[in-house]
From TrEMBL:
<feature type="domain" description="LysM">
    <location>
        <begin position="2"/>
        <end position="48"/>
    </location>
</feature>
<dbReference type="InterPro" id="IPR018392">
    <property type="entry name" value="LysM"/>
</dbReference>
<dbReference type="Pfam" id="PF01476">
    <property type="entry name" value="LysM"/>
</dbReference>
<protein>
    <submittedName>
        <fullName>Carbohydrate-binding module family 50 protein</fullName>
    </submittedName>
</protein>
<feature type="domain" description="LysM">
    <location>
        <begin position="60"/>
        <end position="106"/>
    </location>
</feature>
<dbReference type="InterPro" id="IPR036779">
    <property type="entry name" value="LysM_dom_sf"/>
</dbReference>
<feature type="domain" description="LysM">
    <location>
        <begin position="118"/>
        <end position="164"/>
    </location>
</feature>
Amino acid sequence: MSSYTVQPGDSMYAISQRLGVTLQALEAANPQVRPPAFQINVGDVLKIPGKGPGPTPSGGTYTVQPGDSMYIISQKLGITLQALEALNPQVKPPAFQINVGDVLKIPGNGPGPTPPGGTYTVQPGDSMWAISQRLGMSLQALEALNPQVRPPAFQINVGDVLQIS
């Protein structure tokens, strides 16, 4: 697991959207943030699920964790459900049954070289978090270089061109 420091204007929902994790996974990883208000304060440090040992993609694979589904995994990793399904034909419709400990193939193999020209074109399944991890830069740096991508959703679309340097 990695960590995230709460910034002004953040909410649990906004953080989950920005980092490409489900709200439920973020809440489960941070039991100190209690319902019904889920109150967080600037400077609080939250655990971010799916970014550390165990559930992290490593060498193009992912090990299924308790509570996972194909959809949840796609959201955790910032990839499309269709891409995940295409790489794992052993997980068959209609149920797409997976079990804890199953090892799934995932697209990409971690950070790659920074594209030339200081820009990055958003690809299917990308999130700001996934792009920052792929390019080996902090999420905050990527956000600072792209003020047009606004909170709380930090919405990006396939084909958008982001500044990366």
